[in-house]
Batch of 2 targets.
Target 1
Amino acid sequence: MQYGDTLFTIASRFHTTPEQIARMNNLSHYHLAWGQQLYIPYLKSQDSRSAGNHSQTRQQAYRPVTAYTATRPILVNGVDINTGLYPVLNYQPENAEYPYIYVPIAEFRRVGARVTWKEQEQLIVVETDYYQLKQENERLRAQLAAYGPIPQQGNTSGNISNWGIAAQQGDWVYFSNITNGNRLYKMRLDGTAKQKLNDDNALYINVMGDWVYYINRNDQMKMYKIRTDGTQRTKIDDQHSATVMVVVGDWIYYVTQSEQYRIYKMNVNGTGKTRMGEDYGVEEMYVSADWIFYTAQPQNLRIYKIKTDGTNRAQVTQDSARQLNVVGDWIYFVNQTLPGIFRVKWDGTGKTSFAAEYSNPTSLNVHGDWIYYGYSDLYKTRLDSPEQIKLTPVYGFAGLINVVGEWLFFRVQYNGEKLLRMKTDGTQAEIVG
């Protein structure tokens, strides 16, 4: 170092920046002392003008560092990116209060960031739409708030599509114990404190507040409710039998046999019975926001929607559909005539397909970022990836897939019908007795 040198003159002389020199030498300021030794980024220039090329190639070399794999979450845009194939590294120089965090570029792409190399500035740039998306999300939240609180759902669309054999509330799961005659049970998610609530043959289970709602196959498909502690078993309505039932807020939406399989709604106390439109032969039905989505036989099982006040009936798609799953702004379904699993937006646009080689999945449940489906065995695939993962072991033909927390509940044929549960990663499979 020469007399009168500053970090800026040294950086200019060696074609680098004061920040790079300060970072390499762990300097907290730009003041230098006479005789102080500095590490300088090494630059090697190769002038290729003799070959007619007037550009210069620069190589920059730094001294090696020792880092260790980070074990804590590294959050980017609220997402932990320290969970992929490329681990995040920590490097803590001497006397540094905090470590430097080295994040592999591939991990930024996992959260939607664009990573580009700018040749002129010699910079790697990470760009993201996070803040624009956050602003749009806040705008939509404010718009939803103007409509008032969103009614609570008694069960998920994927579970209702699979006869609603399991429903979650807190750390409890209420389920139809197929192993024991479909009787109504409850237990904690960890498998403890299992108890029978009653001897009814229960399907389309919905849990709302202190009540469990269900269709009782032991009483001609009538609708019942019972307290979560097993008391006050009550028949809700003695007139209508139901083939599908969904509880939303204070209302029960159902398809009734006695009215040629039309859609009705009534209050959870059995009053205010109202028909929803004139379509009959309805097979599947679910309610999301203020829309009812359904398929009906006379319309060749095409997907329709109608407002919960009975107005604005409209066709969503021409597809002959079954296994309806309404998730967010999308409707997932199995096409009766085409192979694979499909999805379409509520307005009928954006149609895409998944798992095309499976022509006729027997069960479909979309939950979080995953699609779970049965095709003799049990499979799952991510919404953003074509990879299909077989979940094992399965003791026989898998159907009626219900997702509760980190668990799958489903029916298998194994010395008769059994209720099986396993983790969503395919581990800890067991028969629920």
Target 2
Amino acid sequence: MRVLAAMSGGVDSAVAAALAVEAGHDVVGVHMALSRNRDQFRTGSRGCCSIEDAGDARRAADMLGIPYYVWDLSERFEDTVVADFLSEYEAGRTPNPCVRCNEHIKFEALLDKATALGFDAVATGHYAQIVTTEVPLPDGGRQTVRELHRSPNDAKDQSYVLAVAGPERLARAMFPLGGFASKDEVRAEAAKRGLSVSAKPDSYDICFVADGDTRGFLQSRLGSRPGSVVDTDGEVVGEHDGAYSFTVGQRKGLGLGRPAADGKARYVVDVQPATNTVVVGPAELLSVDRIAGEKALWFEGVLSGSPVEPVETPADVVPDADGWFTAEVQVRAHGAPVPARVRSVASPGDAYGDDVPEGERTPSADGSHRLANAMEIELTGAPLRGVAPGQSVVVYRGTRVLGQATVSRAWRAPAAR
């Protein structure tokens, strides 16, 4: 196969490219230039877009004997990933830029360009596995599908951030590191091949926030917008420079003028962009056992036939009469999966059930309830804490990814309070 290897300049993507070459594929390396701000390419950048990274990727490609190119995707990155990051915070939601980068850049812009140039697949250094299997069809036949599974390396598993790419795009993806159980194994493979990045530290922080100061970045783009911090009774307990820079579950940096009456710590429990207000309260208000998700998608092996048309569920996951099936859900990149009941519904509004009065139902991201698919989740184990609109929720059955959605609302059922 003709394979385009996405080479970030780190050890993971270099070894992934090397394994693709050794598998006999015709491999071309490409480094994505994602920033128009030269500060983000400076020496010592904390993210993954530094000058050193481009040079390291080139040296790895030279060592492997493969062609190497740099593609400027900075405009697309700014218009999708960065724009989404800003608009979501401005709307009082909590985005995950790595999820959006996988959706819009690595498995949309990059993959589409690779396909147009005649490549059969894109290889990346993600820690995840694609497993080919067969599922039964209602007519008695069988369908071959490609499933997304967790990596055996629990500490580095990236199936959570890959789920948003969906089945069609992941069908043209290769993850050569899928079987590695540890990062040390990958570094050993790099050293064995003489790749200079074998001991290179991992990148961290948001790549387009070069100094790691997310609040400062937001303020530089969105400006100062002074407002009030209030408690759950509506009493003003502090001031802020922009509600957009706060997230549900946040404890530090609240700038409160006085402690709570009971002396306990207070957390952000709500962000209200319409009034530029941040609401703080006790930790117990952060616990939720209900989640509504919008823009839901299901992975390969999905067929129509759930109680609500045209919603679909995985073909080998049999729902009950009301459409519910058991699974596990995860709401953070490295969070622990928790047991839940899940079902497909036609819109986020439908996912609120009877727990949320009609007047309190948070609109979906586009301001409507008319999205094609949504997801309703009831946690059946311990409640989750600090789940915020805008986060990605991924549904698993064991190691297998079943589906993904964006959290539109999270709350505690009245009977559980």
